[in-house]
Amino acid sequence: MDAFRHLRALSLVAALPILAQAAQTPAHDFWLEPEQKRPSAGAVLGVKLLVGEHFIGDSLPRPAEGVEEFEFLHAGGVSRVSGGAGESPAGIVVMPANPAGLLVYRGGGASVELALADFHRYADAYGLRDAIDKEDGWREPGPFSECFDRYAKSAIGGAAAGGLSGKSLDWDFEIILSTLPHSDAGDLRGRLLAEGEPVPETLMRLYRQGEPGLELKTRTDRNGAFAFRLPGHGHWGVMAVAISRAGFFASCDWQSRWASFNFDWSP
Question: What pTM, to 2 d.p., does this model score?
Fold first, then answer.
């Protein structure tokens, strides 16, 4: 895409961050993109891995390593999203008899290096300044190295996937949606969790595909809960990030966790 250029990869994982040229802000948002929003039973569904910002991104090939979980959860059980390293789309899955469910991806192992000015812009863009301030993150002159893990979900079948969207997978970081929009009701409610526990006071960002200028924001309450009123139909994605100092033996300065959940709301 003309609006983005790739940052240098610092690991074997193929999930590369992207840098927005206009604002020079690193874009780490990561999400799953099913090639069909409402596949039929028996359909072979391709699933892309996308990275970018404002719900606009570049498709990435399947990483050679670091993929911890890539599955389709449905009423009949669990189907693996299969694929080989370097393939794009990153995976395919055959839809079961009831094709409503949840695509899930958990992976990590990538890192990137940022100059001090870019680190400041990054903190402002993603609501991370308070978290970095608490750990005296601005003392060093930079550059800063960041390791990150990614946790993505995508609801298939609209509101019919609601029974799975509200269940925690006990991941290190995840978004659950207790209500998916249906009919004419555009209410979206959910929680942000870390290992099943609420994550309070964290910025949640909501985007509609094809409308980069539309960005809705809120913060989780003390119970990790958040709510949005959607202004209309479309394919929506809600995203969050948390950052902390990396451990003493880590190969980077900061450890971040990125979560996304996208879904389709049709008339």
Answer: 0.88
Six token digits for residue 163: 């029974």
Dihedral Cα 226, 25, 252, 246, nearest 10 deg:
-20
Considering only CA atoms, which of 234, 197, 196 is closest in space to residue 216? 234
| pLDDT tens per residue across span 106-147 | 998 778 898 988 888 889 989 999 999 998 888 888 888 999
Neighbours of 139 (CB within 10 A): 6
CA distance 101 to 98: 8
Separation between Cα atoms, residue 203 and residue 231, nearest integer Å: 19
- CB 104 within 8 Å of CB 152: yes
Tell me if 180 sits within 8 A of 159, measured CB to CB. Answer: yes
Q: What token pair was written down for 168?
A: 């925690």
CATH number of the domain where residue 157 is located: 2.60.40.10
| Mean pLDDT confidence for 214-235 | 95
| Domain range for 71 | 4-265
Per-residue confidence at 265, pLDDT binned at 50, 70, 90? confident
Distance CA 202, CA 97 (A): 38
Name the residue among 68, 256, 224, 221 with its Cα closest to residue 145. 256
**pLDDT over 60 (residue 40):** yes
Q: How many domains does the chain have?
A: 1
Q: Where are the alpha helices (DSSP H) in 100-226?
A: 116-125, 129-134, 162-165
Q: SS3 of 49, please?
A: strand
Average pLDDT, whole number, for the chain? 86
